[in-house]
Amino acid sequence: MNDIEEQLYVLLIKEIPVVREGLTRDTTLEEIGLDSLSTIEFMFQIEDHFEIRFDQTGTPPKTLGDVFDEVHAKLAQA
Amino acid sequence: MSGSHRVVVTGIGVVSAVGTWPGRFFERVCLADSGIKPLPETNPAPPITIAAWIEEGIDNDPKTAAHDRVTQLALSAGRRALDEAKLLDQPDLLRETGVYLGTGAGPSSTMDQSYHRLYAEQKDRVSPMTLPRGIHNAPASELAIRFGMGGANNTFAIACASSATAIGEAMRAIRHGYSKRILAGGSEALLTYGVLHAWHALRAVAPPADPVSASCRPFSADRNGLVMGEGSGFMVLESLESAQARNAPILAEIVGYGASCDAEHITHPATEGQQRAVRNALQDAGMEPASIDYINAHGTGTLAGDAVEAETLRTVFGTNIRDIPVSATKAVHGHLMGAGGAVELAIGILSIGHNRIPPTAHCRLPDETLGIDMVAEGAREQTVETVLSNSFAFGGSNAVLIARRF
After folding, report:
1. CATH fourth-level superfamily of B255-404
2. Which of A43, B191, B215, B348 has the smallest C-beta neighbourhood within 10 Å, fewest atoms?
3. What is the 3-state secondary structure (H, E, C) of A61-72?
4. What does the pLDDT look like over B39-54, one tens digit per residue?
5. ipTM confidence score
6. Hey, are the CB atoms on B128 and A17 less than 8 Å from each other?
């Protein structure tokens, strides 16, 4: 766990009605109710917050860990 | 279903600056307890500084909070109407229920925020939710999604006649057998920086009075404009057969709907067009003018608007108008624009249920030239069997509804 991932959980909780307890990197987007539209919005909020841009290509994230790894990768490039 | 069906109201829900229904809404309207107050301070400050804005009554759950304010209000008022109609735990009945919603400005906060982001913050893109939240039919669609209402889903954008038209058209759809049950009404939440500027530019809005709560004074000789408001009102309209089959509470019957267009001017009202709508409604109900017990006027508090409406009433009702109480409740709940017709018809139906006619608040100098009984002295206890509600819109569209005791 690190500060960046904690910020991501805060963004997620602002976006959808979930509680922090029980959320892990292995939690799938589907099981917390993030459909395709709300996933796009969540990614947009992340981009806005960290001032990064995800690649539009590639495999869509399935778990919170997938999202977090993308954020780490983009921040490392910045 | 086919043929002609009587249409009844089995539930009402209101969220407004003067409270909610069910709740203290009707009591506050009758007490002339105005919801008009200073707007919260913002930077930059808008040119309009007062409005009838809502502090409490909006459902406080994350699923509701995620939407534009106009949708939040619609979800909150719609839920109350469905609850009063005993439909919330009836998924099969909800599946055959439609939604007819009127809104003038639609999701204006979403659009305002996206423009601010682009123009003021100089960002190069907007939230992906801008379109899903910002489409004009988002409130009606979200109501359907939230409560599982699978019937026809229609949005009416006819400025200040939007929700009256929604109710009238819903009544017709049920009367003629196209639907069994429709949640009909409207929602408006346009107190955004951009929209406030647009209204200010039109010079139709009243300046703050002392006290601020008395800034909107319909039918008063010293009236000087409307006061903007936000709110939502819905009612469950249902065929009589459907309501009786499920032992639903029956609050009133909708018996008349008249629509017309002035076809003259985009903002200035014309009495001939209004008269056509009132006469159409009376004819639709099969009623004579003398059979109306209470008129909830459009009564915005503008000099010209109130005068034209009074002329309309004098012309259609003739000498009977002296004996029919006419009140303009926008003095307390503000001008709810597209939601006004629904909220004001709700007041009319509640006046039947309570046998109490709400006053025209702050009518401190009754304008005798109008020639109407504007209930300036306070609420009146009297038997009310039949009510007529006027909604006259920019664009010249007029919608008039008549309800009576069932």
Report:
1. Thiolase/Chalcone synthase (3.40.47.10)
2. A43
3. CCEHHHHHHHHH
4. 999 999 999 999 999 9
5. 0.82
6. no
